[in-house]
# Entry
Amino acid sequence: MKQMRCIFAGLIAALLLTGCAVCFAETASSAQPMMIDLDLSAMSGTVVYAQVYNMLSDPDSYLGKTIRMAGYYNYFDDQTHGVVYHACIVPDATACCAQGIEFVWGGEHKWPDEYPEIGTDIIVTGRLETYEEEGVKYLHLVDAELMWGKEGQP
Amino acid sequence: MIDQLRMYLNFPFVQYALIVGVLIALCSSLLGVTLVLKRFSFIGDGLSHVAFGAMAIAGVLHLTDDMLFVLPVTVLSAVLLLRTGQNTKIKGDAAIAMISVGALAVGYLLLSLFSTSANLSGDVCTTLFGSTSILTLTQAEVWLCTGLSVAVVLIFILFYNKIFAVTFDEDFARASGTRAEAYNLLIAVVIAVIIVLAMNLVGSLLISALIIFPAMSAMRLFRSFKGVTICSAVLSVSCALLGILISILWSTPVGSTIVAVDIGAFLIFCIIAKIQGGIAK
# Structure
Protein backbone atom coordinates (compact mmCIF):
# COMPACT_ATOMS: atom_id res chain seq x y z
CA MET A 1 0.00 0.00 0.00
CA LYS A 2 2.78 2.35 1.01
CA GLN A 3 4.56 1.57 -2.24
CA MET A 4 1.39 2.19 -4.21
CA ARG A 5 0.96 5.55 -2.50
CA CYS A 6 4.53 6.41 -3.35
CA ILE A 7 3.85 5.50 -6.99
CA PHE A 8 0.77 7.72 -6.91
CA ALA A 9 2.78 10.54 -5.37
CA GLY A 10 5.35 10.09 -8.11
CA LEU A 11 2.69 9.98 -10.77
CA ILE A 12 0.99 13.16 -9.68
CA ALA A 13 4.31 14.90 -9.18
CA ALA A 14 5.56 13.96 -12.64
CA LEU A 15 2.52 15.15 -14.55
CA LEU A 16 2.66 18.51 -16.25
CA LEU A 17 0.00 21.14 -16.46
CA THR A 18 -2.06 20.71 -19.59
CA GLY A 19 -5.14 22.26 -21.08
CA CYS A 20 -6.25 25.86 -21.27
CA ALA A 21 -7.99 28.01 -18.75
CA VAL A 22 -11.67 27.24 -18.32
CA CYS A 23 -14.53 29.08 -16.78
CA PHE A 24 -15.35 27.78 -13.32
CA ALA A 25 -18.99 28.64 -13.62
CA GLU A 26 -20.27 25.16 -12.92
CA THR A 27 -20.19 23.82 -9.39
CA ALA A 28 -20.63 20.15 -8.65
CA SER A 29 -21.65 20.70 -5.04
CA SER A 30 -24.74 22.36 -3.64
CA ALA A 31 -23.35 22.76 -0.10
CA GLN A 32 -23.33 26.09 1.77
CA PRO A 33 -20.37 28.33 0.94
CA MET A 34 -17.46 27.59 3.29
CA MET A 35 -15.48 30.14 5.30
CA ILE A 36 -12.10 29.99 3.61
CA ASP A 37 -8.95 30.45 5.72
CA LEU A 38 -6.50 30.27 2.84
CA ASP A 39 -7.54 30.95 -0.74
CA LEU A 40 -4.82 29.65 -3.06
CA SER A 41 -7.00 29.96 -6.14
CA ALA A 42 -6.50 33.74 -6.19
CA MET A 43 -2.70 33.54 -6.04
CA SER A 44 -0.02 33.32 -8.70
CA GLY A 45 1.25 29.86 -9.65
CA THR A 46 4.69 30.45 -8.09
CA VAL A 47 3.18 31.42 -4.72
CA VAL A 48 0.69 28.56 -4.82
CA TYR A 49 3.43 26.03 -5.51
CA ALA A 50 5.52 27.39 -2.61
CA GLN A 51 2.47 27.48 -0.31
CA VAL A 52 1.54 23.87 -1.10
CA TYR A 53 5.17 22.86 -0.53
CA ASN A 54 5.03 24.52 2.88
CA MET A 55 1.73 22.81 3.68
CA LEU A 56 3.27 19.43 2.89
CA SER A 57 6.47 20.10 4.83
CA ASP A 58 4.79 21.78 7.82
CA PRO A 59 1.23 20.43 7.94
CA ASP A 60 0.68 21.22 11.63
CA SER A 61 0.45 24.94 10.87
CA TYR A 62 -2.41 24.34 8.46
CA LEU A 63 -4.41 21.50 10.07
CA GLY A 64 -8.12 22.21 10.46
CA LYS A 65 -7.98 25.21 8.14
CA THR A 66 -10.31 25.47 5.17
CA ILE A 67 -8.27 25.80 2.02
CA ARG A 68 -9.30 26.57 -1.52
CA MET A 69 -6.89 25.64 -4.27
CA ALA A 70 -6.87 25.62 -8.05
CA GLY A 71 -4.98 23.03 -10.06
CA TYR A 72 -5.71 20.12 -12.30
CA TYR A 73 -7.38 16.84 -11.50
CA ASN A 74 -5.68 13.49 -11.24
CA TYR A 75 -6.46 10.20 -9.53
CA PHE A 76 -4.85 6.95 -8.53
CA ASP A 77 -6.93 3.79 -8.67
CA ASP A 78 -5.54 1.41 -6.03
CA GLN A 79 -7.17 -1.75 -7.32
CA THR A 80 -5.47 -3.94 -4.71
CA HIS A 81 -7.34 -2.25 -1.88
CA GLY A 82 -10.26 -0.96 -3.90
CA VAL A 83 -9.59 2.68 -3.10
CA VAL A 84 -9.45 5.60 -5.52
CA TYR A 85 -7.41 8.61 -4.41
CA HIS A 86 -8.21 11.98 -5.99
CA ALA A 87 -5.82 14.91 -6.09
CA CYS A 88 -5.52 18.54 -7.09
CA ILE A 89 -2.12 19.04 -8.73
CA VAL A 90 -0.21 22.34 -8.79
CA PRO A 91 2.85 22.66 -11.06
CA ASP A 92 5.71 25.09 -10.50
CA ALA A 93 6.62 27.92 -12.84
CA THR A 94 9.00 25.81 -14.92
CA ALA A 95 6.39 23.00 -15.04
CA CYS A 96 9.09 20.47 -14.21
CA CYS A 97 7.82 19.89 -10.68
CA ALA A 98 4.35 19.55 -9.27
CA GLN A 99 2.84 19.32 -5.81
CA GLY A 100 -0.46 17.61 -5.22
CA ILE A 101 -2.96 17.52 -2.39
CA GLU A 102 -5.40 14.67 -2.08
CA PHE A 103 -9.05 15.52 -1.54
CA VAL A 104 -12.19 13.70 -0.52
CA TRP A 105 -15.24 15.11 -2.28
CA GLY A 106 -18.04 15.69 0.21
CA GLY A 107 -21.31 13.76 -0.32
CA GLU A 108 -22.01 10.72 -2.47
CA HIS A 109 -20.35 10.77 -5.86
CA LYS A 110 -19.85 7.92 -8.26
CA TRP A 111 -16.37 7.50 -9.73
CA PRO A 112 -15.54 7.91 -12.58
CA ASP A 113 -18.91 9.03 -13.96
CA GLU A 114 -19.35 12.13 -11.81
CA TYR A 115 -15.69 13.12 -11.62
CA PRO A 116 -13.83 15.32 -14.14
CA GLU A 117 -11.40 13.96 -16.70
CA ILE A 118 -7.71 13.71 -15.79
CA GLY A 119 -6.02 17.03 -16.47
CA THR A 120 -9.18 19.10 -16.08
CA ASP A 121 -8.65 22.42 -14.30
CA ILE A 122 -10.43 22.21 -10.96
CA ILE A 123 -10.99 24.28 -7.83
CA VAL A 124 -11.16 22.33 -4.58
CA THR A 125 -12.27 23.75 -1.23
CA GLY A 126 -11.91 21.61 1.86
CA ARG A 127 -10.63 21.25 5.41
CA LEU A 128 -7.05 20.07 5.73
CA GLU A 129 -6.63 16.96 7.85
CA THR A 130 -4.12 14.15 8.25
CA TYR A 131 -4.75 10.43 8.16
CA GLU A 132 -2.49 7.46 8.70
CA GLU A 133 -2.10 4.33 6.62
CA GLU A 134 0.36 1.60 7.55
CA GLY A 135 2.32 3.96 9.78
CA VAL A 136 2.63 6.71 7.18
CA LYS A 137 0.94 10.07 7.66
CA TYR A 138 -0.85 11.65 4.69
CA LEU A 139 -2.58 14.97 4.15
CA HIS A 140 -5.92 15.48 2.48
CA LEU A 141 -8.74 17.96 2.14
CA VAL A 142 -11.96 16.52 3.55
CA ASP A 143 -15.62 17.44 2.96
CA ALA A 144 -14.34 19.07 -0.18
CA GLU A 145 -16.32 21.08 -2.68
CA LEU A 146 -15.21 20.39 -6.23
CA MET A 147 -15.69 22.82 -9.10
CA TRP A 148 -14.65 22.59 -12.70
CA GLY A 149 -15.48 24.11 -16.06
CA LYS A 150 -18.09 23.05 -18.54
CA GLU A 151 -15.53 21.28 -20.70
CA GLY A 152 -14.72 18.97 -17.82
CA GLN A 153 -18.29 18.01 -16.89
CA PRO A 154 -19.05 14.31 -17.23
CA MET B 1 -1.69 44.38 -7.99
CA ILE B 2 -0.42 46.38 -4.98
CA ASP B 3 -2.97 44.63 -2.74
CA GLN B 4 -1.91 41.27 -4.10
CA LEU B 5 1.76 42.10 -3.51
CA ARG B 6 0.96 43.24 0.05
CA MET B 7 -0.81 39.93 0.66
CA TYR B 8 2.16 37.93 -0.68
CA LEU B 9 4.58 39.90 1.48
CA ASN B 10 2.73 38.66 4.58
CA PHE B 11 3.73 35.07 3.83
CA PRO B 12 6.84 34.01 5.78
CA PHE B 13 8.26 32.12 2.78
CA VAL B 14 8.10 35.27 0.62
CA GLN B 15 9.83 37.27 3.37
CA TYR B 16 12.51 34.57 3.66
CA ALA B 17 13.00 34.61 -0.13
CA LEU B 18 13.46 38.39 -0.20
CA ILE B 19 15.93 38.39 2.72
CA VAL B 20 18.02 35.53 1.34
CA GLY B 21 17.75 36.85 -2.24
CA VAL B 22 19.08 40.26 -1.24
CA LEU B 23 21.93 38.78 0.82
CA ILE B 24 23.01 36.35 -1.90
CA ALA B 25 22.84 39.05 -4.58
CA LEU B 26 24.95 41.36 -2.40
CA CYS B 27 27.61 38.72 -1.71
CA SER B 28 27.85 37.53 -5.30
CA SER B 29 28.21 41.07 -6.65
CA LEU B 30 31.01 41.94 -4.19
CA LEU B 31 33.17 39.03 -5.27
CA GLY B 32 31.94 39.24 -8.86
CA VAL B 33 34.08 42.30 -9.54
CA THR B 34 37.20 40.51 -8.30
CA LEU B 35 36.45 37.40 -10.34
CA VAL B 36 35.78 39.31 -13.55
CA LEU B 37 38.99 41.34 -13.15
CA LYS B 38 41.03 38.23 -12.36
CA ARG B 39 39.64 36.56 -15.52
CA PHE B 40 37.87 33.92 -13.44
CA SER B 41 34.34 34.71 -14.63
CA PHE B 42 33.62 31.10 -15.46
CA ILE B 43 34.72 29.70 -12.11
CA GLY B 44 31.21 30.25 -10.74
CA ASP B 45 29.83 27.93 -13.39
CA GLY B 46 32.42 25.24 -12.66
CA LEU B 47 31.92 25.38 -8.91
CA SER B 48 28.15 25.35 -9.18
CA HIS B 49 28.38 22.12 -11.18
CA VAL B 50 30.64 20.70 -8.47
CA ALA B 51 28.01 21.72 -5.91
CA PHE B 52 25.38 19.95 -8.02
CA GLY B 53 27.48 16.77 -8.06
CA ALA B 54 28.05 17.02 -4.31
CA MET B 55 24.33 17.55 -3.76
CA ALA B 56 23.61 14.42 -5.78
CA ILE B 57 26.04 12.39 -3.65
CA ALA B 58 24.49 13.83 -0.47
CA GLY B 59 21.06 12.83 -1.78
CA VAL B 60 22.19 9.31 -2.60
CA LEU B 61 23.75 9.00 0.88
CA HIS B 62 20.45 10.26 2.39
CA LEU B 63 22.20 13.06 4.29
CA THR B 64 19.56 15.10 6.08
CA ASP B 65 21.61 18.31 5.89
CA ASP B 66 23.34 18.23 2.51
CA MET B 67 24.95 21.64 3.13
CA LEU B 68 27.44 19.96 5.52
CA PHE B 69 28.70 17.88 2.60
CA VAL B 70 28.20 20.26 -0.35
CA LEU B 71 29.98 23.24 1.23
CA PRO B 72 33.32 21.50 2.08
CA VAL B 73 33.44 19.76 -1.33
CA THR B 74 32.82 23.05 -3.15
CA VAL B 75 35.38 24.89 -1.01
CA LEU B 76 37.96 22.18 -1.76
CA SER B 77 37.23 22.42 -5.49
CA ALA B 78 37.50 26.20 -5.41
CA VAL B 79 40.92 25.98 -3.77
CA LEU B 80 42.07 23.44 -6.36
CA LEU B 81 40.74 25.50 -9.28
CA LEU B 82 42.32 28.75 -8.15
CA ARG B 83 45.63 26.99 -7.66
CA THR B 84 45.61 25.55 -11.18
CA GLY B 85 47.18 28.67 -12.63
CA GLN B 86 50.28 27.96 -10.62
CA ASN B 87 52.66 25.06 -11.24
CA THR B 88 50.11 22.58 -12.60
CA LYS B 89 50.03 20.56 -15.80
CA ILE B 90 46.36 21.30 -16.46
CA LYS B 91 45.85 25.02 -16.95
CA GLY B 92 43.01 27.15 -15.54
CA ASP B 93 40.32 27.09 -18.23
CA ALA B 94 40.82 23.40 -19.02
CA ALA B 95 40.67 22.50 -15.32
CA ILE B 96 37.44 24.47 -14.84
CA ALA B 97 35.88 22.83 -17.90
CA MET B 98 36.92 19.34 -16.77
CA ILE B 99 35.68 19.73 -13.21
CA SER B 100 32.51 21.47 -14.39
CA VAL B 101 31.26 18.88 -16.86
CA GLY B 102 32.72 15.99 -14.88
CA ALA B 103 30.82 16.91 -11.71
CA LEU B 104 27.62 17.54 -13.68
CA ALA B 105 27.83 14.17 -15.43
CA VAL B 106 28.74 12.20 -12.30
CA GLY B 107 26.00 13.98 -10.29
CA TYR B 108 23.31 13.14 -12.83
CA LEU B 109 24.61 9.59 -13.22
CA LEU B 110 24.46 9.00 -9.46
CA LEU B 111 20.99 10.49 -9.23
CA SER B 112 19.77 8.30 -12.07
CA LEU B 113 21.28 5.13 -10.63
CA PHE B 114 20.61 5.51 -6.92
CA SER B 115 17.98 8.17 -6.34
CA THR B 116 14.80 7.04 -4.60
CA SER B 117 12.95 10.20 -5.60
CA ALA B 118 9.62 9.77 -7.36
CA ASN B 119 10.36 12.71 -9.64
CA LEU B 120 14.01 12.63 -10.71
CA SER B 121 13.64 15.03 -13.64
CA GLY B 122 11.87 17.49 -11.36
CA ASP B 123 14.65 17.31 -8.76
CA VAL B 124 17.32 17.85 -11.41
CA CYS B 125 15.40 20.70 -13.02
CA THR B 126 14.94 22.40 -9.64
CA THR B 127 18.64 22.11 -8.79
CA LEU B 128 19.79 23.32 -12.20
CA PHE B 129 17.36 26.21 -12.70
CA GLY B 130 16.43 27.17 -9.15
CA SER B 131 12.74 26.88 -9.95
CA THR B 132 11.06 27.89 -6.67
CA SER B 133 13.84 26.76 -4.29
CA ILE B 134 14.17 30.24 -2.85
CA LEU B 135 10.48 30.19 -1.90
CA THR B 136 10.71 26.88 -0.08
CA LEU B 137 13.43 27.71 2.44
CA THR B 138 13.10 26.69 6.08
CA GLN B 139 13.81 29.10 8.93
CA ALA B 140 17.05 27.23 9.72
CA GLU B 141 18.22 27.62 6.10
CA VAL B 142 17.46 31.34 6.24
CA TRP B 143 19.56 31.72 9.41
CA LEU B 144 22.41 29.75 7.83
CA CYS B 145 22.27 31.90 4.68
CA THR B 146 22.17 35.06 6.78
CA GLY B 147 25.14 33.98 8.90
CA LEU B 148 27.26 33.00 5.90
CA SER B 149 26.32 36.16 4.00
CA VAL B 150 27.26 38.39 6.94
CA ALA B 151 30.58 36.53 7.18
CA VAL B 152 31.25 37.08 3.45
CA VAL B 153 30.48 40.81 3.65
CA LEU B 154 32.63 41.22 6.78
CA ILE B 155 35.55 39.41 5.14
CA PHE B 156 35.21 41.62 2.06
CA ILE B 157 35.16 44.82 4.14
CA LEU B 158 38.01 43.76 6.48
CA PHE B 159 40.28 42.59 3.66
CA TYR B 160 39.14 45.10 1.04
CA ASN B 161 42.62 46.58 0.50
CA LYS B 162 44.29 43.17 0.24
CA ILE B 163 41.65 41.82 -2.14
CA PHE B 164 42.06 44.99 -4.21
CA ALA B 165 45.84 44.50 -4.35
CA VAL B 166 45.63 40.80 -5.26
CA THR B 167 42.95 41.47 -7.87
CA PHE B 168 44.86 44.07 -9.86
CA ASP B 169 48.48 42.99 -9.66
CA GLU B 170 49.24 39.77 -7.84
CA ASP B 171 52.99 39.97 -8.52
CA PHE B 172 53.25 43.52 -7.22
CA ALA B 173 51.17 42.59 -4.16
CA ARG B 174 53.50 39.66 -3.48
CA ALA B 175 56.59 41.85 -3.96
CA SER B 176 55.21 44.40 -1.52
CA GLY B 177 54.82 41.78 1.21
CA THR B 178 51.18 40.78 0.77
CA ARG B 179 50.61 37.05 1.22
CA ALA B 180 48.92 36.70 -2.15
CA GLU B 181 48.44 32.92 -1.91
CA ALA B 182 46.68 33.22 1.44
CA TYR B 183 44.31 35.87 0.04
CA ASN B 184 43.69 33.82 -3.08
CA LEU B 185 42.75 30.96 -0.78
CA LEU B 186 40.43 33.26 1.16
CA ILE B 187 38.80 34.42 -2.10
CA ALA B 188 38.37 30.78 -3.17
CA VAL B 189 36.66 29.85 0.10
CA VAL B 190 34.35 32.87 -0.06
CA ILE B 191 33.46 32.15 -3.69
CA ALA B 192 32.57 28.57 -2.81
CA VAL B 193 30.30 29.75 0.01
CA ILE B 194 28.56 32.19 -2.32
CA ILE B 195 28.07 29.52 -4.98
CA VAL B 196 26.47 27.10 -2.51
CA LEU B 197 24.19 29.86 -1.21
CA ALA B 198 23.28 31.08 -4.70
CA MET B 199 22.15 27.62 -5.81
CA ASN B 200 18.99 28.28 -3.80
CA LEU B 201 18.35 31.51 -5.63
CA VAL B 202 19.00 30.84 -9.29
CA GLY B 203 20.03 27.18 -9.53
CA SER B 204 23.43 25.86 -10.49
CA LEU B 205 23.27 26.70 -14.22
CA LEU B 206 22.51 30.38 -13.74
CA ILE B 207 24.89 31.29 -10.90
CA SER B 208 27.52 32.78 -13.21
CA ALA B 209 24.99 35.40 -14.27
CA LEU B 210 24.66 36.66 -10.69
CA ILE B 211 28.43 37.03 -10.48
CA ILE B 212 29.17 38.47 -13.93
CA PHE B 213 26.26 40.70 -15.01
CA PRO B 214 26.20 43.23 -12.12
CA ALA B 215 30.00 43.63 -12.28
CA MET B 216 30.02 44.02 -16.08
CA SER B 217 27.11 46.49 -15.96
CA ALA B 218 28.87 48.60 -13.32
CA MET B 219 32.06 48.58 -15.39
CA ARG B 220 30.19 50.26 -18.27
CA LEU B 221 29.75 53.41 -16.16
CA PHE B 222 32.41 53.42 -13.45
CA ARG B 223 36.17 53.17 -13.64
CA SER B 224 37.39 52.84 -10.03
CA PHE B 225 37.36 49.53 -8.13
CA LYS B 226 35.35 51.11 -5.31
CA GLY B 227 32.82 52.69 -7.68
CA VAL B 228 32.34 49.48 -9.64
CA THR B 229 31.95 47.43 -6.44
CA ILE B 230 29.34 49.74 -4.90
CA CYS B 231 27.38 50.11 -8.16
CA SER B 232 27.54 46.36 -8.72
CA ALA B 233 26.21 45.65 -5.22
CA VAL B 234 23.32 48.12 -5.52
CA LEU B 235 22.43 46.87 -9.00
CA SER B 236 22.62 43.20 -8.05
CA VAL B 237 20.37 43.64 -4.99
CA SER B 238 17.87 45.73 -6.99
CA CYS B 239 17.73 43.17 -9.82
CA ALA B 240 17.29 40.28 -7.37
CA LEU B 241 14.46 42.06 -5.55
CA LEU B 242 12.75 43.04 -8.81
CA GLY B 243 13.20 39.53 -10.22
CA ILE B 244 11.69 37.84 -7.16
CA LEU B 245 8.74 40.24 -7.11
CA ILE B 246 8.07 39.78 -10.86
CA SER B 247 8.31 36.05 -10.36
CA ILE B 248 5.77 35.84 -7.54
CA LEU B 249 3.38 38.28 -9.23
CA TRP B 250 3.43 36.79 -12.72
CA SER B 251 4.33 33.14 -12.05
CA THR B 252 7.65 33.10 -13.81
CA PRO B 253 10.61 30.91 -12.72
CA VAL B 254 12.53 32.82 -10.03
CA GLY B 255 16.11 32.14 -11.17
CA SER B 256 15.70 32.91 -14.85
CA THR B 257 13.59 35.99 -14.08
CA ILE B 258 16.36 37.45 -11.90
CA VAL B 259 18.92 36.74 -14.63
CA ALA B 260 16.63 38.32 -17.27
CA VAL B 261 16.40 41.47 -15.13
CA ASP B 262 20.22 41.45 -14.81
CA ILE B 263 20.51 41.21 -18.61
CA GLY B 264 18.05 44.09 -19.01
CA ALA B 265 20.07 46.21 -16.57
CA PHE B 266 23.28 45.40 -18.47
CA LEU B 267 21.73 46.56 -21.76
CA ILE B 268 20.48 49.78 -20.14
CA PHE B 269 23.93 50.46 -18.68
CA CYS B 270 25.50 49.82 -22.11
CA ILE B 271 23.15 52.35 -23.72
CA ILE B 272 23.84 54.92 -20.99
CA ALA B 273 27.59 54.40 -21.45
CA LYS B 274 27.22 54.89 -25.23
CA ILE B 275 25.26 58.10 -24.71
CA GLN B 276 27.78 59.37 -22.15
CA GLY B 277 30.62 58.47 -24.52
CA GLY B 278 28.88 60.35 -27.33
CA ILE B 279 28.37 63.43 -25.18
CA ALA B 280 32.00 63.37 -23.99
CA LYS B 281 33.22 63.34 -27.60
Remarks:
- Residues 32 and 211 of chain B are 4 Å apart (CA to CA).
- Chain B touches chain A at residues 4, 8, 11, 13-14, 118-119, 121-123, 125-126, 129, 131-132, 135-136, 138, 247-254 (CB under 8 Å).
- Chain B has a mean pLDDT of 84.
- The radius of gyration of chain B is 19 Å.
